[in-house]
Amino acid sequence: MKKYHLTAIGNALVDMEFKIEDNFLKACSIDKGVMTLVTEERQTELVAALEGHPGKWACGGSAANTVIAAAQFGADCFYSCKLAADETGDFYLRDLHTAGVASNADHGRGPGITGKCLVMVTPDAERTMNTFLGISEGFSIAELDSDAINASEYLYIEGYLVTSPTGRAAAIEAKRIAERAGVKTALTFSDPAMVQYFKEGLEEMVGGGVDMLFCNEAEALAWAGCGQLEEALGALSQIAKNFAVTCGADGAILFDGEGLHRVSPHPVTAVDSNGAGDMFAGALLFSLTRGDSFPNAGRLASLASARVVSSFGPRLLAEEHQEILQTVSLQQQPQAVRR
């Protein structure tokens, strides 16, 4: 039996989330619905402009949200990242420990500035991110914990690492370590902009293929360079043994290596889409590591992500995870989709 169900690598960012109106984005010349890398000065300027808007802080980053979700459901998890020895880094590590996740950062942090992600949520529940990577931009092979990777059932790689040469190299090396040890590899595309502007780097990270791929419909279409989801699913099957494509209000489509399964959505009033895909991945991987079928794992992931969308913030309260587990009946199978 492995020590960890899941080891993840990614950018450690303190999420600073605010509720805003669309006119704020226009006034500040911010591109809506995507992640944009910004300088610390630009981020500080925007935070000052947001004074008085409702907001909350949490340790985050895409992979961190996923590994925290898995841990809150009951998985044993490890997170490799790069934090600075500053107050923001102190906050991040405390929040990570509270969620029950071990980390390489437990063994020391260096000088610098811990990264922050400014998340702006509009009334339509769309999230727009302006990110200052800080010390996380230097995430590298040095931050990998090969013992943790070798002791895991899955290695989960955040697609955002593609924007940094050292991060991309670390992702490629982590995947090599995992494959050599027989550890399953999982990758998330993270954001449509990553596929649009960094596809060549993502192809390097994918290498000869991954065991599990996570993406949304827009990312799948961008990867395949087509306008039809059916065609995009075929392209994904060429690089992943299994995959999950989230389709917003239309639910999700899973591929278990043999066939496609449609996971029905849970109708909710959307408040904040931030973290929905991360939660879906965390819940699905948790369920798979405990031996559930892909359709049953998809049902858990669908309900969990719906709960995230219906509240403000990228994560749920710890007790909500157990409530979701009790709510989901793992015997009911979603309807299979014919190719």
Architecture overview:
It is a single chain. With 339 residues, the chain is α/β, with parallel strands linked by helices. It has one domain: UDP-N-acetylmuramoyl-L-alanine:D-glutamate ligase (3-Layer(aba) Sandwich), CATH 3.40.1190.20. It has twelve helices and 15 strands. A ten-stranded mixed sheet has the order 6-5-1-9-10-11-12-13-14-15, with helices on both faces. A five-stranded mixed sheet has the order 3-8-7-2-4. Helix 4 links the parallel strand 5 (77-80) and strand 6 (101-103). Helix 7 (192-206) crosses helix 8. The radius of gyration is 18 Å and the shape is globular. The relative contact order is 0.15.
Question: Could you name the key traits of this structure?
Answer:
UDP-N-acetylmuramoyl-L-alanine:D-glutamate ligase, globular, disordered C terminus, 10-stranded mixed sheet, 339 residues, 12 helices
Question: What is shown here, in short?
Answer:
The chain is built from 12 helices and 15 strands. With 339 residues, the protein is of the alpha/beta class. Strand 7 and strand 8 (127-132) form a beta hairpin.
CATH homolog superfamily: Ribokinase
Q: Give the count of helical stretches.
A: 12
Low-confidence stretches are 330-339
Strand content: 15-25%
Helix and strand string, N-terminal first? EEHEHEHEHEEEHEHEHEHHEEEHHHE
Placed side by side, the strands forming the largest sheet appear as 6-5-1-9-10-11-12-13-14-15
* Rg of Cα set: 18 Å
For the record, the CATH class is Alpha Beta
The average pLDDT value, as a whole number, equals 92
- General form: globular
Secondary-structure-based class equals: alpha/beta
The name of the CATH architecture is 3-Layer(aba) Sandwich
Major β-sheet annotation: 10 strands, mixed
Helix proportion range: 25-40%
Q: Give the count of structural domains.
A: 1
CATH topology name:
UDP-N-acetylmuramoyl-L-alanine:D-glutamate ligase
The N- to C-terminal Cα distance equals: 36 Å
Number of strands: 15
